[in-house]
Amino acid sequence: MITSSNLGFPRIGSKRELKKTLEKFWSGKANEAELLNTGRLLRQENWSFQKEQGINHIPSNDFSFYDQVLDTTAMLGAVPHRYGWQDDQVDLKTYFAMARGEKGRVTAMEMTKWFDSNYHYIVPEFEKEQSFRLSSSKVIKEFEEAKQLGIITRPVLLGPVSFLLLGKSKQPGLDPLSLISNILPIYEEVLNQLAGVGAEWVQLDEPCLALNLSYEQRASFGEVYSRLSRVSPRLKLLLATYFGDLLGNLGTVVSLPVAALHLDLIRAPLMLDRILPIVPKTLSLSLGLVDGRNVWRTDLDNAIEAAKKAKEKLGSDRIIIGPSCSLMFSPVDLDLEVKLDKEVKNWMSYAKQKIKEISTITKVLNEGDASAKDALLESRTACAERKTSPRIHKLEIKNALKNISPDMFNRLNPYSVRKVQQEELGLPLFPTTTIGSFCQTDEVRTKRANHRSGKLSQTDYDQFLRTEVEKTIRFQEQVGLDVLVHGESERNDMVEFFGEQLEGFVSTENGWVQSYGSRCVKPPVIFGDVVRTKPMTVDCWQYAQSLTPKPVKGMLTGPVTILQWSFVRDDQPRSVTCRQIALAIRDEVIDLEKAGVKIIQIDEPAIREGLPLRQTEWESYLQWAVDCFRLSSSGVRDKTQIHTHMCYSEFNDIIEAIGKMDADVLSIETSRSQMELLDVFSKYKYPNEIGPGVYDIHSPRIPTSGEMKDLLLKAMEFISPQQLWVNPDCGLKTRSWEEVSPALDAMIAAAKNVRTHIKEHCK
Asked: Are the CB atoms for 625 and 682 separated by under 8 Å?
């Protein structure tokens, strides 16, 4: 029989139970027992649901209190020395200190994007002769927890090669893969313990196989899996790859001594035809036929057709049906969407619905079409209606795309002419600003919820927002910032806010996905052509600017980030959808300038994460991504200063493309890596202005003025003082006023100290 499988389930809970309990725990309003109980209940609910739906391979250890890579760091005892950890097991205090830092004590570990997704992972840190030991029994305990419920799960582990490749050496010349012999004994011990408690399968995730790998990196897989496959004759290993085509790594992968191989056939549908002729008789295939990263219904007929092709070649016993990747990138339950547009909802599928789709595909393959007649009819009807709906295509935007001219991608003059903006704005050396958002307090969230539910009138809500804007402006004036923001108290999310005002989008109530830790986002859904029908931010900016003589930035989200952080239609190239969004943002930029804005920030934190995993595809992506930003930003006069912001990705390898975006000022995250990112500027002379973040806002730890001054002095090793701005590394939405106030005081003091340092140095 063909079997069904899942690679991972959302861990946050259908009502974000994990987020709420985590934040209570961190604030001291919940104890460790309450946090652990929340995790236990969520795991049991997830396992039970999958069992009820007939899933044969149910994952365990896919749950995490923060991040699966950090869980692996804890399992291996790879805790950096600065945390002072000396116990046998990594406790929650140490675990969360690594993720978030600790007030007054230690900084957090670096955080970056998980491949080309908006999920962030905690980057492992490696050093020469590093020792490792089994320091977490989480994977064993969760298997036994499920076993007590009568469910034999398939434990999930991040594979040892990907774990090392995703980490970062803290010492020059250290190849993380040189540590493979140090960590393999721990993996062997874990597998042996799992076999001892009754595990039959273990899933080892090696997503780095979707990347371009060197000969040495490919060879390491053979060495590793040759050892791991010999741990126990009772244990079968499933090697899970996802996010892309294996291409040059395919030959390596099919030769590995594992029982099954998972393929992402959503991202790489043509891979199936290439692998079927070379699959050894000892290898089963897990077919990722349900999209784990988007919200659209599966075309069941297409999925079944692909599976039948594999079945004819390999037979039923060697086929497993599953999602393309873990469902952690999907919202939990579409049935909770009671207000969502009914037509669009009928085209969609969340994690629970995707589990049902996997079960349906498996059932049809085993028992025939008649076994799932109603589900197949519903799928065919929904897919056909989506293809023919008149709501998807709009002639006006298609004509607008045709009428884009080459001059629309360029400012009137180069930056060398525009840089007089700084003098015209009357800004000092090392001007200070923030990234955009200020604290989203419980009061702000409550007022927004009451307004949405109808408990608070539009008039009263507008007055509340004006009060919040004024409070934010006065606070910034008081601390002494040079360029202000209105604080974004009216925005639930930097992408969803715009999605709610643009045609071609729908917003959800419960479409939450995890971004990192307790941070959840609710991506809007792009189902059709994107059109802006009215100004979106002008009125709010005008009110904020009326309160102060200091410049207030107009705050927008860029087209690439709106694309990347939405669930995107899959019936046309992403580049076309992005260009539609760029035209909408361009119209907003022009209207802001007409209203009197002197500085407009168009945030593009997602531009790096959209980069294809294969370097051969980078040029094409970067061309259209940079073009879309320039299209959105180039309709203004020279004296209007355009800013952009990027965070939590590795930007070194695309810095020239970032330069081609031609923003007057770039603010970028560098604080967690201690300005490591700026090393690239020793080779690439960034032409415009830049604000390297000096304050890590994702940690509750408040840095000192001296620390921030040191970071600025380090930045000056690569960038001239005339180019430097001073700012946090990201928006302040997630922090409290009690944290923000002293941190900004320290940041502004650091800027003043560096100005003094420069004056004394010049003497």
From this structure: no
Token output for 563: 């694309």
CA distances from 606 to 357, 601, 643 (A): 30, 15, 15
Catalytic residue among 57, 643, 698, 761: 698
Angle CA 13–669–590, to nearest 5: 90
How many residues would you count in the chain? 763
Q: Pairing between strand 201-205 and 154-158?
A: parallel
Contact 205, 160 (CB under 8 A): no
Q: Please give the Cα distance from 12 to 520 (Å, whole number).
A: 8
Query: Parallel, antiparallel, or unpaired: how do β-strands 3-4 and 59-60 relate?
Result: unpaired
For 134-183, list the strands marked E by DSSP.
154-158, 168-169
Question: Quick check: is 698 catalytic?
Answer: yes
Nearest to 570 by CA among 206, 119, 269, 263: 269
DSSP state of 32: H
Dihedral angle at the C-alpha atoms of 675, 681, 686, 692, nearest 10 degrees?
Answer: 0
Closest C-alpha among 584, 571, 570 to residue 628: 584
Q: Measured at the alpha carbon of residue 632, what is the angle toward residues 423 and 294, in degrees to the nearest 5?
A: 135
Return the closest-CA partner of residue 517 out of 35, 4, 64. Answer: 64
Q: What is the largest CA-CA distance in the chain?
A: 87
pLDDT for 572 = 96
Angle formed at CA 542 by CA 540 and CA 543, multiple of 5 degrees: 65
Kindly state the tokens that stand for 577: 């959808």
**Do 233 and 257 meet the contact criterion of CB atoms below 8 Å apart?**
no
Number of H helices, E strands in the chain: 27, 21
Q: What is the pTM of this model?
A: 0.92
Q: Dihedrals φ, ψ of 59, to 5°?
A: -75, 150
163: exposed, middle or buried (Cβ count in 10 Å: 0-12, 13-18, 19+): buried
| The pLDDT value given to residue 129 | 82
pLDDT digits (tens, 9 = 90+) for 25-80: 999 999 999 999 999 999 999 999 999 999 999 999 999 999 999 999 999 999 99
Distance CA 586, CA 605 (A): 18
Q: How far is CA 228 from the centre of its chain?
A: 31
